[in-house]
Amino acid sequence: MEISNEIMKVVIDSQIDEIEGSIIYGFMASRQKDDKNKKLLQKMADDEAKHALVWKSITKKDLKANGFKMFILKVATVILGFTFVVKKMQKGEHKTIGSYEKLEKDLPQIGYLVEEERRHEKELYAMLDEERLHYVGSMVLGLNDALVELTGAIAGVTFALQNTKLVAMTGIITGISATLSMAASNYLAERSDGASDALKSSFYTGMAYLITVALLVLPYLLLPSSMYVIAFATMIVTVLLIILFFNYYLSVTKDEPFIKRFMEMATISLSVAAISFVIGILAKQFLGIDTL
Known about the structure:
Blueprint: H1 5-31, H2 35-59, H3 67-80, H4 82-103, H5 111-127, H6 136-161, H7 164-192, H8 198-222, H9 228-253, H10 258-287
Helix pairs in contact: 1-2, 1-3, 1-4, 2-5, 3-4, 4-5, 6-7, 6-8, 6-9, 6-10, 7-8, 8-9, 9-10
């Protein structure tokens, strides 16, 4: 049977998608400690490889995965966790099913692939149980607290001290002290609620806080002492990027609304920064502080 160029293009894309799916699922399986998840992911990798062979029987071509895309997805799996990558791939699964259903008229031999792709969807959602996602609340606590407190503190002292190194020193001392305090408070709160994983919960809170501190202070460490205005602007951009990234991560892994949460966190953090900025200017004015 003659296949049109349009259909052949879809078939070629489908073959590459299945090859890439097989590679990524196999990579996830190799990193799994949970036997059930490991077997399921490996089964899915094997299924994708079989599907790729079906497409190959039509294209008669040895196609390869996009090496750069595979590298990015593997790095994302390690850093962001398999839940994030799997749910991103789920969107591709929905498109794949739609493409397969359209092709069934012209290529009846691919009919069973639709059912297998649907089965993949159900199995994927059923298996998603990643440890780090149990502590999203702890990470939100640390991240949000650091953004509000440190953004406010740094904004307040930037124009009062007018020296990036002094601001960095203030931010580091304040940030580390607040990290230890926040982690300890979270531990005590979890212990008082009878949580058996209080230590791990406090670790996630502390790490989220500390990483945020490091990112906010970094512009002041890198820029010359006199460039405090640029350092401040860079910090504000960094705050918005952190909020953007974290809320995008939550919107994918926890199916939470992205825009609403982003606007809420951004409004709170920037409002505190604005208020602290005014307080810093007033303090400098009325206390007669001069660091120049």
